[in-house]
Design a protein that fits this description.
Shape of chain B: globular
Largest sheet of chain B: 5 strands, parallel
Number of strands of chain A: 16
Oligomer: heterodimer
Largest sheet of chain A: 8 strands, mixed
Protein name (chain B): Oxidoreductase
GO molecular function, one term (chain B): oxidoreductase activity
CATH architecture of the largest domain in chain B: 3-Layer(aba) Sandwich
Radius of gyration of chain B: 20 Å
Order of helices and strands of chain A: EHEEEEHEEEHHEHEEHEHHHHEEEEHHH
Helix content of chain A: 25-40%
Order of helices and strands of chain B: EHHEEHEHHEHHHHEEHHH
Distance between the termini of chain A: 49 Å
Radius of gyration of chain A: 22 Å
Pfam families (chain B): Oxidored_q6
Strand content of chain A: 15-25%
Strand content of chain B: 5-15%
Organism (chain B): Phytoactinopolyspora halotolerans
CATH topology of the largest domain in chain B: Rossmann fold
Shape of chain A: globular
CATH class of the largest domain in chain B: Alpha Beta
Number of helices of chain A: 13
Number of domains of chain B: 2
Number of helices of chain B: 12
Helix content of chain B: 25-40%
Structural class of chain B: alpha/beta
Bound molecules: iron/sulfur cluster
Strand order of the largest sheet of chain B: 2-1-3-4-5
InterPro entries (chain B): Hydrogenase_assoc-protein (IPR051349), NADH_UbQ_OxRdtase-like_20kDa (IPR006137), NiFe_Hase_small_N_sf (IPR037024)
Number of strands of chain B: 7
Largest interface: A-B, 60 and 51 residues
């Protein structure tokens, strides 16, 4: 972990973002970043920095996401949207191979034509990419498709000074500062501080490099060395963000809590509210499960094998000979949260949750992982504060 | 390759019951795939495409429509007897269809209001799915059914494998295609979380909530959707119970997970 010093940190104004996008595009990258579409800040390929969501923010809560106008010009003044970078490195659908008649099996090469540059990666998502690297990119059988897409991704991280109401990276040790795994890291300052002529509301960016590739790109940007005072000011703002997380999930005893509560009546309580739709797993930046599907054409001569996202909330996910193992909603929710917070440690040596809050905001019925843990800790379903009591369980 | 002219092609029959014909149209709508299909099956009975009707038995029968008259019960039983595989297609054949709204009303009453000579109209007081009367090998959901899913089912039966028809929610398809959730981001009521996938999540892609055309998520006939959980949320989004009941009793009215989700239905709507 490197502590940035004034010596390694530069400052630039908002116009430099345009240069950054242009430089990355000139170097052959497909630049993916946030932009406004359909009432949300989504990820898309950007042909220029002008498509960044300047002046847009979001209001988040369990089951609620609303785009709102900010009273400043922030480009990164928003928390996690409906997609994560997972959609690019581990896409929802991927062809694995195809075969015609008795011909050879032809492996699909779904390598992106141009390597990705991810612009605006939050520290929590940076950590999530690290987890995916561990799960899919390493081990005895690395996922080749993942490796092809992930190799050479250029990452521009953006630190958080304004966490959302569903954020809890502070609890999970994955933010709000960017610590490793980036090529460039930005801190967006909106209070008018900074050596570049700027007024309150107009963003100024501190920028530092985390890799040789980052240093190379940084050299092409109109940035000047930042003075130590400004760097300290930015550091304070990021540190203060840690204290202003909208939610928290105290880590102590979490692994054991899940193991000890295998038979808790609380699972039925969650199951009365959870509609087993699977949204939480699909928006989660670390949920990686997939299933394979074989398709044939009408003649049976052409066959293809596809892989697509699956979810522990899907009944077919636990289908083995004769039927599905986890039929009840209670067992499926328990599987999800236990894997995220407990058995992930056994399997991959870390937590599976980075505290991005997506599963909370994008659950259509507003189920909140932090609140479910709090209720488990409290040991009684009656401690609950949210609505939903009296609802019938799925079965 | 097999010479298709020499081998006996499996026969396909398409039957209509109480329905709008939209699902049969989906088969005609297969355009590019129709010729290859005709090379793989002998279409023995499909009145919407041809008046020629070959005698059974049939290898695969597609049954569209619900059972709503006494006649239809007998006809469905005869079709079952002459069919190897019987696939119910569409919301009518799998969950009673829109016409199953009669299940919550007094048929005699509206028959007397609508028809000049109500005694000429022979109808049952319930609209029911095919599975209420005969053994059904596969239920293909949708109002109307999805063309790709229909081809998948036909292909699967032709090569003797299990159809690959997912039994998860519409939300899976929303997320896979990158649609922003209309319920979370716009506050639009949506039945997607408890509705079986298959349409490709068309409505949310046009900023509309899912109407539930593909019926409740269920596995092997057993209910698997927590519709009550969604009803709680719809109420929180200020949707009135009357409207919730109407949304749930539209295309798949005879599916109990949908029709009975609001326990005390508005007056006159109880069974
Ligand atoms: S927790 Fe929420 S998002 Fe996840 S499956 Fe349950 S209802 Fe869907
Ligand atoms: S479990 Fe929820 S908060 Fe944790 S990483 Fe996944 S989506 Fe984010
Ligand atoms: S729009 Fe509807 S179907 Fe799509 S994710 Fe949201 S709740 Fe599910």
């Amino acid at each position: 972990m490197s502590t940035p010093t004034a010596a390694g940190v530069s400052v630039m104004d908002v116009s430099a973002l345009c240069v950054l996008v242009d430089v990355l595009r000139d170097r052959g990258y497909a630049v993916i970043g946030p932009t406004v579409r359909d009432g949300a800040i989504v990820l898309d390929e950007l042909d220029s920095a002008e498509r960044l969501p300047f002046g847009w923010g979001v209001t988040l809560d369990a089951g609620t996401y609303r785009l709102r106008r900010r009273d400043d010009g922030a480009a990164f003044g928003h928390a996690a949207g409906p997609q994560s970078w997972k959609s690019y490195v581990h896409p929802a659908r991927e062809r694995l191979w195809s075969r015609d008649g008795d011909g050879p099996v032809v492996a699909a090469d779904e390598t992106p034509r141009r390597p990705y540059a991810f612009l605006g990666v939050r520290p929590c998502d940076l950590r999530a990419l690290g987890i995916l690297d561990r799960v899919l990119g390493q081990g005895r059988h690395p996922d080749q498709g993942y490796a092809r897409r992930r190799d050479g991704v250029f990452i521009v991280a953006v630190e958080c000074i304004e966490p959302g109401r569903t954020c809890f990276c502070g609890s999970m040790g994955s933010g709000p500062a960017a610590e490793e795994g980036y090529d460039l890291a930005l801190t967006e300052l909106l209070d008018g501080s900074g050596s570049v002529s700027s007024s309150p509301g107009t963003p100024t960016y501190l920028i530092r490099s985390g890799s040789p590739a980052g240093t190379d790109v940084l050299a092409e940007l109109p940035a000047t060395p930042a003075d130590a005072e400004l760097v300290a000011h930015a550091r304070d703002a990021v540190d203060a963000a840690a204290e202003r997380m909208g939610r928290s999930l105290p880590a102590d005893g979490l692994r054991e809590l899940m193991v000890e509560n295998r038979e808790s009546p609380h699972w039925d309580d969650v199951a009365a509210r959870c509609v087993t739709c699977g949204n939480c797993t699909m928006v989660c930046p670390t949920c990686f499960c997939t299933t394979t599907e074989d398709v044939t054409d009408l003649t049976g001569e052409h066959a293809e094998r596809w892989r697509r996202w699956d979810s522990c909330f899907d009944l077919d996910f636990s289908y083995i000979h004769g039927g599905s193992v986890r039929m009840s909603g209670a067992s499926r929710y328990r599987q999800w949260i236990t894997h995220k917070l407990s058995t992930w440690h056994d399997q991959f040596g870390s937590t599976g949750c980075v505290g991005c809050g997506r599963c909370i905001a994008w659950c259509p019925v507003g189920i909140d992982i932090t609140e479910e843990v709090a209720m488990l800790r409290a040991g009684s379903p009656d401690e609950r504060t949210t609505a939903g009591d009296g609802a019938e369980g799925p079965r | 390759m097999t010479d298709t002219s020499a081998r006996r092609l499996p026969t396909l029959a398409v039957w209509k019951f109480t329905s709008c014909d939209g699902c049969q149209l989906t088969l005609l709508d297969c355009e590019d795939e129709l010729l290859p299909l005709a090379g793989q099956v002998r279409i023995a009975h499909f009145l919407e495409a041809s008046r020629e009707s070959l005698p059974g038995p049939y290898d695969v029968s597609l049954v569209e429509g619900s059972v709503s008259t006494p006649d239809e019960i007998d006809r469905l039983k005869r079709i079952r007897e002459v069919s190897g595989v019987l696939v119910a297609i569409g919301a009518c054949a799998t969950a009673g269809g829109i016409q199953a709204l009669r299940n919550f009303a007094d048929v005699d009453e509206f028959r007397s209001v609508v028809y000049a000579r109500p005694e000429y109209v022979q109808t049952l007081d319930r609209s029911t799915p095919a599975s209420a009367h005969v053994r059904v090998d596969f239920e293909l959901r949708g109002c109307p059914i999805d063309k790709r899913q229909l081809l998948e089912v036909l292909t699967a039966y032709l090569v003797g494998r299990k159809p690959n028809i997912p039994r998860h929610s519409v939300c899976f398809e929303c997320k896979a295609r990158g649609t922003t959730c209309v319920m979370v981001a716009h506050g639009t009521p949506c039945l997607g979380p408890v509705t079986q996938a298959g349409c490709g999540a068309i409505c949310p892609a046009y900023s509309r909530g899912c109407f539930g055309c593909f019926g409740p998520v269920a596995v092997d006939g057993a209910p698997a959707a927590n519709v009550t959980g969604l009803v709680e949320r719809l109420r929180a989004l200020r949707m009135a119970d009357d409207d919730i009941v109407r949304a749930l009793r539209t295309f798949n009215s005879a599916a109990p997970e949908f029709s009975d989700a609001v326990p005390d239905g508005p007056s006159g709507r109880t069974r």
